[in-house]
Fold this sequence. Notes:
12 strands; 12-stranded mixed sheet; Aminopeptidase
Amino acid sequence: MLTTRQGIRPLGPADLDAFLALVITDPVVNVFADYRARTTGLEPRWLGGEMWGRYAGGALVAACHVGANLVPICATDEDARAFGERALTRGRTVSTIVGPDDAVRSFWNTVAGSWGRPRDVRWGQPHLQLDGDPVVEGDPLVRRTNRADLAEVYPACVAMYTEEVGVSPEHGGGAELYRARVLQLMSRGWSFASFDESGRLVFKAEVACASPYAAQIQGVYVVPDMRGRGLATTGMAAVARIVRREIAPVVSLYVNDWNVPARRAYERVGFVESARFSTIMF
């Protein structure tokens, strides 16, 4: 088996079975990696980047997704540092580093001196999961969205992204690509929302990625003038129930540690903390 420095080499379609066997050791935390592998077959042209694998004794022991997002997968401190050393040989091409807290910290400590000052760093984000029914009733008005809802859904997605990330997804001419992403989620049945009597969107959430084992929620948003009324709790209960019934048996997400209202809403639904993530944005 041809490997490079530190026992790392790019993975390809021939490595798919070994990769899936690796991520299934923690299928909820690794749902993004699992989803990317199953939808691309680890074919670089579909990955839009590379998937690095680290080997020990001929076995795949850790991996790292290197695309727009860099995501360490099943990486120990040593693995993450090794991936960081490899990353230093090519310079920063990613916009975000995200994943389990310990691995992200080890990777970042390796590359920080060369990759420049990040725009934002969010350590210790609680990773939450729900593997049973929600413990509160869901909002019966929550439903899947479709193209006819785009005039309401798209601005809410832009507002949520801007509020969460600190920059609009339309910045730098990104509106067309972002709109295509919103429509893609709709077409998959992964976009959910509730609307008031006038047809105005008041709550939304999407499934970001899914595997046979788990689905990860993103983009949870309540319009500002409707906050504090429990819409996030009942909305997420409804979404979680649909997702568990029709997409995957476990629902997961991660949230900023400082976002106390959101954390309380998820706790009321029945989500429990299972790990800590961290995110570094450039």
